[in-house]
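Homework help board

Subject: predicted structure for assignment chain

Our instructor gave us this sequence and asked us to write out the predicted structure in token form, then describe one feature. I got the tokens but I'm not sure how to describe them. Can anyone check?
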Amino acid sequence: MLKEPAQPRRPVPMNGAMPLPPPQPGRFVSPTDGTEQTYLLDMPQGVAAGLLVYLHGATNHQEQGMTEGIYHDSFGFVRRWVAGHGWAYVCPEYRGDSWMNAAAEVDLDCLIEDVCRRAETRKVLLMGGSMGGTAALIYACRHPRQLAGVLALCPATDMADRHKLAMLRAGIETAYGGDPQSKPAVYQERSSIRHAAGLASLPVFIAHGEADQTIPVRHSRDMAAELERLGGPVRYVEIPGGDHDAPARPTYIAQGLEWLTGG
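My token output:
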């Protein structure tokens, strides 16, 4: 189904009100420029059943995905989900407001490889919202063999089109080294809708609010339609009347994780 209306339901909490330990801080040296890059990690005991990577939104940082209580406790839910299923969970800084530029892409590739080695798993799900959902799709269409699936909440899929809106424009230009007129190749390269064929082999779950003013819903509608045309396994949930934050709820994250993992 191309456009599936949201059907809210209460997600089942994992392990009840299981207390969460502080995440483990981690660091590595980027092969791109030798800078120190950071991340936060939840690691299970023994071999992990999989690795969930969460990419934070614009103006936020790695702590977003580890913070309980925000967005209807979405990240408390996620952390309990991974703990209950024996998964590892990592939240990279990926250079702040990078919009998955070339340097952030290399860093994420290195981080996934390292954490997979430590967790003894090759099953990787990539998740993010807003800039994070945008970044997840950019990385996934360029590295589909690294992943088992993608969960993108309110993503931008055409970066030149997203640049037309004033909000966050300056950060995009900083990340890409200029505007679409001065850096057309970069904006083309970082627009996942232009490279959707790279996603056609991956399960992709997308959720977007119908009334989103920060990233218009057409970005997700167009991507879902293109993936469906390519025959890719895609599930698209559109939230009637929903704003930009509407998908960032345990309800929709649970739907995505359940669909991507089979439960």
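Reply (TA_rk): Your tokens look well-formed. For the description, you could write something like this. The two ends are 19 Å apart (CA to CA). That's the kind of observation they're looking for.
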